[in-house]
Amino acid sequence: METPKQNFLDTCLFFNTNVFSRQLLKLAESEFTPLKLSPAHASLLLLVLDTPGIGPKELSRLLQLTPSTITRFIDSLAKKRLVLRKAMGKSVCVFPTEKSKDMQSSIALAYKNLYLRYSQVLGTTTAMDLSNRIALANEQVKEALKDQEYDETLF
Questions:
Q1: Do 48 and 83 contact (CB within 8 A), yes or no?
Q2: How many domains does the chain have?
Q3: Contact in structure between 32 and 109 (CB atoms under 8 Å)
Q4: Which of 30, 65, 109, 146 is surrounded by the most beta carbons within 10 Å?
Q5: pTM of structure
Q6: 94 within 8 A of 53, measured Cβ to Cβ
Q7: pLDDT at 147 (0 to 100)
Q8: What is the CA radius of gyration of the chain?
Q9: Range of the domain at 141
């Protein structure tokens, strides 16, 4: 039997990180679906729960999402009565509701279960090392892109 040739995709960081991200998203969605939240909405909600009164700009920075995406997420969570927006002068602050406070431990448990699931597959050391390396690589790429004509708020 002939050995398969190596495909250029096998060594393509862009391709492999996207495939890996989609697989992790499937695991995450299976944990957060019972809460009727997407993993991304759950992340934003935990930040609001941990930092009542946080602003959309700070959420955008922490989640590395565009301001328009943050606005859509806040709109969605407000519609579910999980967050409240309050005007503070020219700024808007986001606060958790009692309903979201009641969900906080369930959201934290979903994140813990997600961590346990991927750590079981990858091994705890590999999972932590991979997470740290990806975070560092993200920062390096972000810095490199600052010199180009890209809008930094996208990253």
A1: yes
A2: 1
A3: no
A4: 65
A5: 0.84
A6: yes
A7: 73
A8: 18
A9: 29-146
Return the residue matching tokens 């935990």: 46
The number of residues making up the chain comes to 155
Q: What is the pLDDT of residue 7?
A: 86
Tokens of 138: 């993200």
9 occurs within a structural domain: no
Query: Are the C-beta atoms of 85 and 92 separated by less than 8 Å?
Result: yes
Only one residue has tokens 């997407």, namely 38
The secondary structure of the chain as a DSSP string is -PPPPPPGGGG-HHHHHHHHHHHHHHHHHHHHGGGT--HHHHHHHHHHHHSTTB-HHHHHHHHT--HHHHHHHHHHHHHTTSEEEEEETTEEEEEE-HHHHHHHHHHHHHHHHHHHHHHHHH-HHHHHHHHHHHHHHHHHHHHHHHTTT--GGG-
Cα distance between residue 138 and residue 145, in whole Å: 11
Residue 3 within any structural domain of the chain: no
13 inside domain: no
On whether residue 17 sits in a domain, the answer given is no
Q: What is the mean pLDDT of each run of 10 residues along the chain (155 residues)?
A: 75 94 97 96 98 97 95 97 94 97 97 97 96 95 78 53
